[in-house]
Amino acid sequence: MSENNSRRGFLATSAAALAGLTLAPGIRLVEIATAKPDNEPVTAKVRWGMLIDTTRCQSGCTECVAACGKENGLSEVKKPRTDAQWIRKIDLKELKTGRALSLPMMCQHCANPPCVDVCPTGASFKRADGIVLVDRHICIGCRYCMMACPYKARSFVHEPHTDQNPEVPRGQGCVEGCTLCVHRVDRGGTPACVEACAAAGHNAMLFGDLNDPESAIAKRVREVKTTQVRADLKLDLGVRYEGI
Q1: Fewest Cβ atoms closer than 10 Å to its Cβ: which of 10, 47, 85, 207?
Q2: What is the residue-wise DSSP string for 47-67?
Q3: Per-residue pLDDT tens over the stretch 37-63
């Protein structure tokens, strides 16, 4: 075999190996190469966010939780005490009026995320578009981020997992949390919870670009009063709530 042919074979093999390399939960080089054109990288011009209308969110409805579990491979663990939930339902009651409401709680995708601040390895990081992720390859399982999160939005993987969604790798000994279904977003889709809520007819979850004044979510945030949970912490959340 000639030197040129050997070099071409090496480069082809190397490219194939790199294409399958996982950089972070839901992010692989092959997807970066195919999900977006070269002239459309992840950019700070976009700020992905979610608006949840608690007046539409039904108590007892767990469609968003089930969809998240199915999409991200969270439902296989048989012991409820160790099974992760990247999104959970919370029922609240106002003491003075007795008004009850229900809302989903997940990673709030802070612009100033405490989990990133305390991570000793850089495994917790925020993308330019505002999505907060965990790189399981450099996560050492110290769980500092879990202690730092005011929203209890992260969980530790205690057990090995099989039959995973290859786009959402999970690993024993790592911390994980809501990714806003980044693998779907990077293909132009929406998070699984938002899709399931709409399919159930509730339409309580609105996803989009908070930085785009013409987007449905930005218009809605301008039109109605919205709340950031623990706004006093000044974390600038990507998830907003209406009706609380």
Answers
A1: 10
A2: -EEEEEETTTPPTT--HHHHH
A3: 545 678 999 999 999 999 999 999 999
192-222: buried (b, 16+ CB within 10 Å) or exposed (e) per residue? bbbbbbbeeebebbbbbbbbeeebebbebbe
The residues spanned by each domain of the chain are: 3-242
Q: Which residues contact 47 (CB under 8 A, 6 or more apart)?
A: 111, 129, 130, 209, 210, 211, 238
Judged by DSSP in three states, 90 sits in: strand
Mind giving me the DSSP string for 20-47? T-EEETTEEHHHHHHHS-TT----TT--
Model pLDDT for residues 165-174, shown as the tens digit of each residue: 889 988 899 9
Instruction: Report the DSSP beta bridge partners of residue 211.
Output: none
The listed CATH number (4.10.910.10, 3.30.70.20, 1.10.10.10, 3.40.50.2300) that belongs to domain 3-242: 3.30.70.20
